[in-house]
Design a protein that fits this description.
2 helices; eight-stranded antiparallel beta barrel; alpha+beta; about 150 residues
Length: about 150
Amino acid sequence: MQNLARAVIVLFGLLVLVVVKVALSVEPTEPSEPLTAQDVTDTWQGDHGARLEVLADGRARLTDASGWECTASGAPGPLTAEGTWIISRHSDENPGILIKFTIDGPSAVPYCGDYFTLAGTGKSGTLGDGSDVRAGFLGPGRLETYRRVPTP
């Protein structure tokens, strides 16, 4: 009986070692360098026609984006609006910015906002201009993927 108990303890110890090794070998999901304003300020073109301009002075302009519930009826529809942005991160999502748009005219909400998250950071990348960085809004119905507009 003592041999069985020893065997169980040894096997349990080996299992703990394997779990620790696996846990330590998993690469972190956060970028090695924190997101900066330079990573996001630029013009972003959506694959369904929307365009987002993120300006260095903290302003943002979104045009022709679909799936936003910022109307008086609350029904999803197109959005063209201006607002402000700050670097922020929503729970376990990729780093990005929080944009709060001001809505002109009757609206279901005083402002309409969402997180714009980046898959990749910086302007280096394979092309050297950051155009290979993908981004998108987290909100439901906003399935458009954005890419940085290459600058000459």
